[in-house]
Amino acid sequence: MRVIDADSEAAVADAISGGIPLEIIGSGSKLCLGRPVSADLQLSLAGLTGITLFEPNELVMSVRAATRLADIEALLATEGQTLAFEPPDLSRLLGVAAGGQTLGGIVASNLSGPRRAVAGGVRDHVLGMRAVNGRGEIFRAGGRVVKNVTGFDLCKLLTGSYGTLAVFTEVTIKLLPAAETEVTLALADLGPQAAVTVMCRAMGSSAGISGAAWLPDQRGGSLTALRLEGFAPSVEARKQRLLGILGGTREAQLWSETASRVWWRDLRDVAPLAGDSERAIWKISLAATQAPALLESLKTLGDARALLDWGGALMWLSLPCQSDAQASSLRRLLPAGAHAMLVKAPAAVRAGVPVFHPLPPAQAMLEERVRHSFDPHLVLNPGRRAAAPPGEGEC
């Protein structure tokens, strides 16, 4: 595939006039998310780097789309600030080089970490964008302060669109102060039902936890982890409150700040499920109370390995690629309202499986109308979100 590194507006205009579809690429860390793109030409945004605005006192930052997340986080650390949605680094899970992901790629894929359950996701922190649509037009959405985001919030629509609506060139993001310290309370060997009950109780309390996850281990046990972040006196007071709330459970382990940060970083990056290229990885969103029953049902699919985040509302699932019907079988097991996205699988599998959860007909029609209004010539990442015909190459 030929790669061009050019002005985004001119490149899209040339693609329209020549009828040449484009695959949009920043660092390439997210190319294996979604379905394979049907394009012979890549538009590289690698030159769109740099921070164009940073106002620590206003908790706002604007960056060009291909700016590395590592560079952004390093600068934020000097001011004691952070990206509240805790973006994960899926490089180990996806088998790509670490440290290359960009803010544009994170916004395009709408990836959020453990803190999303209490702080909101990526789209809740994007204040503004500058982009080029599939008509070759430059446009701006949102602004640089929260009060500017009025009326229809176009930024929320564009976030998570996987480059199919527009080419992002600049993103303005809302920041938050970083936590001074953190601790984690962990309960050993709770079953899924007991773990979800504890996590829901903790998240609904006044303890103000910032993470709740359940992770089984290879010996048949598990860890249920509850994270507290903030100023040291506040963390200590809320820890005592949480211990009181958990009084009816077995004794809790207390992890230090260092141990807590390491464990939650690995969970954020889905490291426990990484390392096996022969398995498919699924991301399932559901009501937390539905998770235990689904875990039990998944045993019918073979060697299913799973972990729970967001208090049980997010399930990461690893399955062996065994049969063409596995994707359909998995989705049939999902409870009402749940959604499953195939995150990792070989390209041939992703080309044949509905990677994103199938939409009801009316919603699918609306999404297609939105897509055509932004990209009437279908030149931006064609095929990345489109559903494949059922039964072809499913895994």
Descriptive overview:
The chain is an alpha+beta fold. The chain folds into 3 domains: 1-178 and 355-395, 2-Layer Sandwich (Uridine Diphospho-n-acetylenolpyruvylglucosamine Reductase, domain 3); 181-268, Alpha-Beta Plaits; 271-345, Alpha-Beta Plaits (2-Layer Sandwich). 29% of the residues lie in helices and 25% in strands. The chain has 13 helices and 18 strands. Strands 4-5-9-7-8 form a 5-stranded antiparallel sheet. Strands 12-13-11-14 form a 4-stranded antiparallel sheet, with helices on both faces. A 4-stranded antiparallel sheet has the order 16-17-15-18, with no helix packed on it. Strand 16 (305-309) and strand 17 (314-320) form a beta hairpin. The longest helix is centred in the middle third of the chain and has 14 residues, at 232-245. It starts with a strand and ends in a 21-residue tail after the last helix. The model is unreliable at 387-395 (pLDDT under 50).
